[in-house]
Amino acid sequence: MSALPPFSGDEPTCAKCGHKGASTEYLAFGDCHHAPRTGITIGWHANQRLHRECGRCGHQWDEATVPPVHLGNGANAEDCPACHGTNPPYPFICPGETPPEPTP
Questions:
Q1: How many CA atoms does the CB half-sphere of 63 hold within 13 Å?
Q2: H or E segment at 54?
Q3: More confident of the two residues 39 and 15
Q4: Cis peptide before 91 (omega within 30 of 0)
Q5: Residues 6 or more apart from 10 whose CB is under 8 A from it?
Q6: Does the chain have fewer CB atoms within 10 Å around its N or its C terminus?
Q7: How far apart are CA 58 and CA 95, in angstroms?
Q8: How far apart are CA 23 and CA 32, in angstroms?
Q9: pLDDT per position as a tens digit, 38-81
Q10: Residue 1 predicted with pLDDT over 80
Q11: DSSP state of 93
Q12: Element (H or E) spanning 62, and its range?
């Protein structure tokens, strides 16, 4: 299974007709709009995602949700959305954002 394209912002551009702007709907794990709802996961991406539909031509596509941001500043990792499920080492403090690589 391939990864979802990254979040394209609040005004995405349609890849088919170039129209700027699309409706957006959050789809939770297992939800799908590409086939009738049958109670089972149908579609290419079972993970949570944003479902987009062009306001001009009706083209539909899915994108990844906005990536979570670390709380940092000594926050408890259990309260940090970006640390969720990462099991950081004791004392379980959110490491914060990784600083960017210096450019030579």
A1: 21
A2: strand 49-54
A3: 15
A4: yes
A5: none
A6: C
A7: 42
A8: 16
A9: 444 445 556 788 889 999 999 988 888 887 788 878 788 878 87
A10: no
A11: B
A12: strand 60-63
